[in-house]
Specification:
The chain is built from 12 helices and 10 strands. The protein has about 350 residues and is an alpha+beta fold. It has 2 domains: about 10-140, no CATH class; about 170-340, Intergrase catalytic core (hpI Integrase, Chain A, Orthogonal Bundle). The N and C termini lie far apart (about 90 Å).
Length: about 350
């Protein structure tokens, strides 16, 4: 074995392979790399490991810090349009098995994503540091490092922002007449923005007074809701919503219930800046997110006495989520409960039969 080595890469069919000499001087190879660059990067790391072992380093330990920093400086690959992802969440390093050997498929992906997140909004720092801890913990499991330096560093999750529902119907009457029905509909049904954006006139059943949620529109494309999904549901339309839909100007050239000015789907980002925020300022209302219309529906429903078993079905979510996010927002919940129980206790004696009889 030479005193120093660089390793080599060769093409095998449609993939590339890396070749090197291990610490005992035996020739080794690893195949399956999609590109020559990836094979060269891998063999460079392997050569560094062998060099460290020949100098008396710990077996199985790899100098990964320098490599992670070097590779994290490369630009992130472009994501295909329409792919659903949350930039706050960095993926955990994953591993694959080939020939019985556990190896990382892309051990540096989480580090590159972490750098991108850390440069973003301050509220994302928790998620960025969590990804760093995941990378270091995985490196410790693979015995690339002896112990993760972030093991005992606390990273508490930031407190979620307070939910601020609208106070009354009078606060949502300031929008452009073309879109005036949207806040009334959103507050009155609790649909998510991606759900009411995808609605067509065929989804309304005016005879039964319900709207059918069958699909969503997000990232520039439609996605059908699975038949077994909570998101696929029927939501009753209250009288105020039906009146707003009757006054809403329908366009015969597009099937959408709430189309954009030129037809097609509303671009939520532009709609927020051109219509939603000016309407809030015109009404003298403090800033609200578009999603707060859904929060308002949940809060008002609880205050009105809607059952906690019914509300999750209407909102397409779980009972645990309703209890965790909205249960404390109904200021008169105790009074409402007291009235219901008093009414039950005061019912006629002839109806007061033992339960189950």
């Amino acid at each position: 074995m030479p005193a120093s080595q660089r390793g080599s890469v060769v093409k095998r069919g449609k993939t590339w392979a890396a070749r090197w000499y291990d610490e005992n001087g035996e020739r080794r190879s690893q195949g399956g790399f999609a590109t020559k660059t990836r094979a060269r990067e891998w063999v460079d790391d392997k050569v560094d490991e062998v060099t460290a072992l020949r100098r008396g380093g710990r077996s199985g330990r790899r100098p990964v810090t320098r490599n992670h920093v070097r590779r994290s400086r490369r630009p992130l690959p472009r994501r295909p349009r329409g792919r659903r992802s949350d930039d706050r969440e960095a993926p955990r390093p994953v591993a694959a098995r080939k020939g019985g050997v556990r190896r990382p498929t892309d051990p540096h992906a989480a580090t590159r994503r972490t750098r991108s997140v850390a440069e973003g909004a301050p509220g994302n720092r928790h998620h960025a540091f969590r990804a760093v801890k995941q990378v270091l913990a995985q490196a410790e499991r693979w015995e690339w490092i002896e112990k993760s330096p972030a093991r005992h560093v606390k990273n508490p999750k930031p407190k979620a922002p307070e939910i601020e529902p609208l106070a009354s119907w009078a606060e949502i009457d300031e929008l452009d007449p073309r879109f005036a029905a949207i806040p009334i509909f959103a507050v009155g049904t609790g649909l998510r923005p991606e759900e009411w954006l995808a609605l067509t006139r065929a989804d309304l059943d005016r005879a039964e007074g319900v709207v059918h949620v069958r699909r969503v529109y997000s990232q520039g494309r439609h996605k059908e809701c699975a038949k077994t999904s909570r998101q696929r549901r029927r939501v009753p339309l209250r009288r105020r919503v039906l009146d707003a839909l009757e006054a809403h100007p329908a366009r015969l050239d597009v099937p959408l219930l709430f189309p954009a000015s030129r037809g097609g789907h509303i671009e939520l980002g532009k709609w927020r800046g051109r219509h939603w925020k000016p309407a809030l300022r015109g009404a003298g209302i403090a800033h609200r997110r578009i999603y707060d219309m859904r929060h308002t529906y949940a809060t008002w429903s609880l205050a009105a006495g809607v059952s906690l078993f019914t509300l999750p079905r209407r909102m397409g979510t779980s009972l645990a989520m309703i209890d965790a996010h909205y249960g404390h927002l109904a200021p008169d919940a105790e009074e409402q409960e007291r009235l219901i129980l008093d009414a039950y206790d005061d019912r006629p004696a002839r109806q007061a039969e033992p339960f189950g009889h």
